[in-house]
Design a protein that fits this description.
Pfam family, one: Rrf2
Number of domains: 1
GO molecular function: DNA-binding transcription factor activity
Distance between the termini: 43 Å
Number of strands: 2
Order of helices and strands: HHHEEHHH
CATH class: Mainly Alpha
Structural class: mainly alpha
CATH superfamily: Winged helix-like DNA-binding domain superfamily/Winged helix DNA-binding domain
CATH topology: Arc Repressor Mutant, subunit A
Helix content: 55-70%
Protein name: Transcriptional regulator
């Protein structure tokens, strides 16, 4: 099963938007992500509906941030791109009367609920601004302003 990378890909796009004052076209985003502009527009539509980005048509148009990066969490973006399932692990339910199946499913269900709650909590604690800050630190470490190594 191929992992769902919509969250990662859209965070990539949004981080570029934080650093670019000019709009990014669907074609430019598609080239960056190696996908089709239609896929970009479909995915970005969820971010637009949530109020995180806006789009302008025509010459000079494209996608821009519509919200403060400090107000956008990774959880917000996760939800805006459709809130894909976080775990591929699931319960067997061929024989719901089986006591072994009930025992196993109960243990897995509780564990998965706890893990999902932890992950969602952490996604909710990280903002797009925090990612931008981390990127800036990494950039400065690789390319010092004073030219030193």
């Amino acid at each position: 099963m191929r992992p769902d990378s919509r969250l990662s890909r859209m965070l990539h796009v949004l981080l570029h938007m934080v650093r670019r004052p000019e709009p990014m076209t669907s074609d430019a985003i598609a080239a960056m992500l190696r996908t089709n502009p239609v896929v970009v527009r479909r995915t970005m539509a969820g971010l637009r509906e949530a109020g995180y980005v806006r789009s302008e048509r025509g010459h000079g148009g494209g996608w821009t941030l519509a919200s403060d990066p400090a107000a956008i969490t990774l959880l917000d973006v996760h939800r805006a791109v459709g809130g894909p399932t976080l775990f591929a692990i699931g319960n067997e339910s061929d024989n719901p009367q089986c006591l072994v199946e009930q025992t196993v499913n109960g243990a897995l269900a509780e564990t998965l609920r706890e893990a999902e709650a932890l992950l969602l909590g952490r996604l909710g604690a990280v903002t797009l601004a925090a990612l931008a800050h981390d990127f800036d630190a990494r950039w400065s470490a690789c390319f010092p302003a004073d030219g030193s190594d």
